[in-house]
Amino acid sequence: MAFILFDGASPRAYPRAMTDLDTFIVGLPKAELHLHIEGSLEPELMFALARRNGVAIPYGSVDEVRRAYAFGNLQDFLDIYYAGAAVLRTAADFQDLATAYFDRAAADGVVHAEIMFDPQTHTARGVPIGEVVDGLLAGMTVAEARHGLTSGLILSFLRHLSEGEAFATLAEAEPWLDRIVAVGLDSSELGHPPEKFARVFAAAAAKGLRCVAHAGEEGPPAYVWEALDLLHVDRLDHGNRALEDDALVDRLRDSAMTLTVCPLSNVKLCVVPEIAAHPIDRMLELGLKVTINSDDPAYFGGYVADNYRAVAGGRGLDKAQLATLARNSFTGSFLLAEAVAAHLARLDSFVAAN
Ligand code: HPA
Ligand code: ZN
């Protein structure tokens, strides 16, 4: 039985005055499709796990950790994110991490989440993959019992590592593949095009796994084309830079490809200069099937409802547009058709009443 350190909403889930739009955003049933579970490690839990496991961390206080979260690009962030993950050692740690995320997500109206994890970040430190997956699965079971929140696991390969290392990770994960919904591709994008992982994605697809990949966050439109044509992704993570290529926009729209957009992440990692310049409404106008997600909420300043609030405030999205984004989160999920239909029915009745 795991020892649960944090039981309840994260310390930043403070009560706030709710406007009508806030109430609508939080109440809107939604799925989260782009979330790195290691990126939900709040500084408070980082310190608690460091103490529990006797791991040294290079910060003296929670405030000092938060002050370190100023990033000029993706790599700046990744360096700090991988260092923070070093406090995660045991299945109990991963269960605590997942439980803290799901409690926080449920408070934001998330009823389904497909969460990424980076096994190589942990196996490279000698943590067995079973500790990681068993802990996350235990947290997922708690979330369903506690909140009725369903979830799926996405095994993400680190793209700065080799194709051979990705194949070895897929082999290590074999005993758990029936509990994993998809493979993904994350970490340093520039210089590591999707093409490098075409064969391992084909092998994963042959095992019945769905495929997602980060592309077009910092990488050029060519990387998005490769994710579509060489990795045969079922869903695209980020995709912002696809807007630079009209033919690519047509392809994404005509194939109804789901894009998992992460507005606060985009600002923090300087993909867009400020939220007021975010292209979310342009993406909607172009007919792209976009969704709103938090990416690494502990590092980027907000969970999923904060991201909906940010685009509502920064780009003036109205309730109908916000409802479209939530609707896309269900149709873009890997849930079975009957579950998607049930979520859409609940969403429609919420919108009709609000
Ligand atoms: N981009 C790429 N890799 C990542 C990210 C991200 O935003 N978060 C965690 N790994
Ligand atoms: Zn991401």
How would you describe this structure in keywords?
354 residues; alpha/beta; TIM Barrel; 8-stranded parallel β-sheet; 17 helices; 8 strands; binds hypoxanthine
Short note summarizing the structure:
By secondary structure, the chain is an alpha/beta fold.
What would you give as the CATH superfamily? Metal-dependent hydrolases
Distance between the termini: 42 Å
At the first level of CATH, the class is Alpha Beta
Assembly state here?
single chain
Secondary-structure topology with pairs:
Layout: H1 20-27, E1 30-32, H2 43-53, H3 62-67, H4 74-84, H5 91-107, E2 110-117, H6 119-123, H7 129-147, E3 150-158, H8 163-172, E4 182-186, H9 198-206, E5 210-215, H10 221-229, E6 235-238, H11 246-254, E7 258-261, H12 263-268, H13 280-285, E8 289-292, H14 297-300, H15 304-315, H16 319-331, H17 337-353
Parallel strand pairs: 1-2, 2-3, 3-4, 4-5, 5-6, 6-7, 7-8
Helix pairs in contact: 1-15, 5-7, 16-17
The chain binds hypoxanthine and zinc ion.
Hypoxanthine (HPA) binds next to helix 4.
Describe this structure in words.
The protein is globular. It is α/β, with parallel strands linked by helices and 354 residues long. The protein has a single domain, classed as TIM Barrel, CATH 3.20.20. Helix content is 49%, strand content 12%. It contains 17 helices and 8 strands. Helix 10 links the parallel strand 5 and strand 6. It has an 8-stranded parallel β-sheet. Zinc ion binds next to loops.
